[in-house]
Amino acid sequence: MIAEFGHYALVLALALALVEASVPMVGARKNDPVLMAVAGPAALAQFCFVAIAFAALTICYVRSDFSVLNVFENSHSAKPLVYKLSGLWGNHEGSMLLWVLILTLFGALVALFGGNLPARLKATVLAVQSSIAVAFILFILVTSNPFLRIAEPPFEGRDLNPILQDPGLAIHPPLLYLGYVGLSIAFSFAIAALIDGRIDAAWARWVRPWTLLAWMFLTLGIAMGSYWAYYTLGWGGWWFWDPVENASLMPWLAATALLHSALVMEKRDALKVWTILLAILAFSLSLIGTFLVRSGVLTSVHAFATDPTRGVFILLILVLFIGGSLALFALRAPLLKQGGLFAPVSREGALVLNNLFLVSACATVFIGTLYPLALEALTGEKISVGAPFFNATFAPLFVPLLIAVPFGPLLAWKRGDVLGVAQRLVGAAAIGVITVAVVFAMEGGGPILVPFAIGLALYVIAGALMEIVERTGLLKVPIATAFARAKGLPRSAWGAAFAHVGLGITLLGIIGETQWSLERIAELKPGQSISIRRYDLRFDGVTTRQGPNYRDLAAHFTVRRHGEFIGVLEPAKRSFPSRGTAITQTALMTRGVSQLYLSLGDPNPDGSLAVRLYYKALVLLIWLGAVVMVIGGALSLSDRRLRVGAPRPAQKKAALSPAE
Amino acid sequence: MSRKQRRFSLIGVALAVLALAVALVLNALKDSIVFFNSPTEVAEKNIKPGTRLRIGGLVKEGSVSRGDGLAVRFAVTDGKHTVPVAYQGVLPDLFREGQGVVAEGALDPSGTFRADSVLAKHDETYMPKDVAEALKKQGHWKDDYEKKLGAAPQGTAR
């Protein structure tokens, strides 16, 4: 009954979505307050029904109801509860349901907190948001129904893919989806602005925090996914330029650009058309990501199923929403009034430069991801575009961007003084240059790129801190005054500084890991040792352990540093009888921000064991930097100006002219 | 600076960044992409030793032999042709004889494929898409694979 109940709730949600997509839209055109008022309650009810459907499927999973096909295929009665719950989105149907749940959640949030929005804008936004929900609920019901029953229920399920039975599954997809789907709000606002043909102050004030929120989740989701891949795949890679990873990186780059351009729009009333376009692009890239992952055109860790009808359906959704929104943009964008003049050298100019580089970098990722697909479809030739391609395109575009990062916050709005800013950044640049020299000397030659990149990272960090130092007058005024000023600084200034520092930290981690990591591969018999840097690992032997739905063959290693005992590492081979599969459980030991990383190969008949041991230098900085970025986002989100009141309206100029 | 000049300077910068991006992409596409080949294509195409490529097929039954340390040799076949492969390192979790595999590396002058990375899937029934298509062409296709194709994640060994 529960499954049918959930199915029925989803159908009702579809009906509500249809109403919400049409009635308020008509109301907004006719200026009918009654019709427009339908949007709010409909959005809330729609979310409730999707939540009921989601809860129903969750109950089926918790009860291990194998008469439901989806549960049978992805669950097992002996599976720990956390994987029964998270196994729900460890498969295609369930993950689409999570997608829709989050989509309707955002719609409901706009309905709840959108009291201060103009009624017309609110109605149109909710209608657009709901039309996305129509498409995706229809997609679930037609091609990927998770509530299908099996006529003769089996006794036991087929279990979840072993590689997904990891705490990462409980966190990574929901975070990523909150980010992906959160961009739909910016999209809906952009479409609503185009339909209305005007943008007012409320628009930017709304879009920026929502984009910021989505961006924070996306950042966390990507970082989490990267860490998961790092410890689970057994060879310590944390980014593979896999098409599916690129599918999440592209919206992130677009959302980062959108954050910065929305800032210009909010403060200076400029870059309106560009911001609208970015909002459309960011969500379009999310949709393309969904298409890439869900349609099965790619074979990868994330491709749960290959079913051509699904691919065609998602492709249709893609064409409809991306094509439709871009066509609408082409038609209506010229109507939007431009404002906010600025000189090329100004904070606006710096943010435009930021956008240019981010969007270009995003475009290179896009080409690298889709070119192999296009080439195969056109010529049948199969190629793989891997890390070398992205290192040769993405990285060079990021270098000038990183050099420019500290300049942005220090430049004045409207007309900046680039020399003056350069003077103020002398300290940061000096730190960078000294680092280059020191690292170069330490490395004793080697590629010059490494010291340069490390210097660049420290320059970005120092530059971001310099802004705070400047604004609080630290070093110039007494500490107490500086402290008082620091407290008085707007949170958004702190947010920007944190986010930029985080960027530098991540860069530092990336360079450190790729350059200074060490690898040892060996075959060991019990009693033998392997050493890396100052660490000695002694292989004591293997033991077997029985888990709830798996068996571990664990190898026991004693770790000593300079002969002194510091801990044990227990990597394992974990085999799942229900699927006849084995996976490698790596063992990690954190040393500062670096890690020892140990994983196992297959045991040999003579009792020896192949092991891979890595010393991953500075690797934790990669994800720590992402966390610092997110803290920056949270600080910025808590800024007073986003919580209450209207921002100071930008000065109206007598002569308005296009900004770009 | 007049309004026109402002606009032109912005457009100029935008075009410069765009040109840089295009140049980088074209350059990278020339140098850093890797073609995928089946053993038959390797035999027929006369590929120069040293060219980076990927080969995919089944690990030939009885062909795996381990040498000193972690050296391993095996043969990749699509039924019609076979390519010997040499690899040094830990093989992925589900590397088995008779299973699908993709190796990346280059041919040496003797015709042995020196792999620096070997990919296999974490599922018994998995077959890489490229391999499946290559096998289909050679008529070595088992219907059984079709149903389960792509149902499993990928593990990589380098």
Q: Could you describe the 3D structure shown?
A:
The complex is a heterodimer of chains A (660) and B (158). Chain A is globular. Chain A has three domains: 398 residues, no CATH class; 101 residues, no CATH class; 99 residues. In chain A, the strands form two sheets. In chain A, strands 3, 4, 5, 6, 7 and 8 form a six-stranded antiparallel β-sheet that branches. In chain A, strands 2-11-10-9 form a four-stranded antiparallel β-sheet. Chain A contains 22 helices and eleven strands. With 660 residues, chain A is of the alpha+beta class. In chain A, helix 1 packs antiparallel against helix 7, helix 9 packs antiparallel against helix 10 and helix 20 packs antiparallel against helix 21. Chain B has 158 residues and is of the alpha+beta class. Chain B folds into two domains: 33 residues; 123 residues, Beta Barrel (OB fold (Dihydrolipoamide Acetyltransferase, E2P)), CATH 2.40.50. Helices cover 32% and strands 32% of the residues of chain B. Chain B is built from four helices and eight strands. A five-stranded mixed β-barrel of chain B has the order 2-4-5-7-6. The longest helix of chain B is centred in the N-terminal third of the chain and has 29 residues. The chains are: A alpha+beta (660), B alpha+beta (158). At the A-B interface, helix 13, strand 1, helix 14, strand 2 and strand 8 of A face helix 1, strand 1 and strand 8 of B. Strand 1 of chain A pairs antiparallel with strand 1 of chain B, so a sheet runs across the interface.
Provide the fold topology:
The complex is a heterodimer of chains A (660) and B (158).
Chain A: H1 2-30, H2 33-37, H3 39-62, H4 69-74, H5 81-86, H6 92-113, H7 119-143, H8 167-196, H9 201-232, H10 243-268, H11 272-294, H12 308-332, H13 347-379, E1 383-385, H14 387-404, H15 407-410, H16 418-424, H17 426-443, H18 449-472, H19 479-488, H20 491-516, E2 518-524, E3 529-532, E4 535-546, E5 551-561, E6 564-569, E7 572-576, E8 581-585, E9 587-591, E10 594-603, E11 609-616, H21 619-637, H22 640-643
Antiparallel strand pairs in A: 2-11, 3-4, 4-5, 5-6, 5-7, 7-8, 9-10, 10-11
Helix pairs in contact in A: 1-3, 1-7, 3-6, 6-7, 6-8, 7-8, 7-12, 8-9, 8-11, 9-10, 9-21, 10-11, 10-13, 11-12, 13-14, 17-18, 18-20, 20-21
Chain B: H1 3-31, E1 33-37, H2 39-45, E2 52-59, E3 65-66, E4 71-77, E5 82-88, E6 100-107, E7 113-121, H3 129-137, H4 143-148, E8 154-157
Parallel strand pairs in B: 1-2, 5-7
Antiparallel strand pairs in B: 2-4, 2-6, 3-4, 4-5, 6-7, 7-8
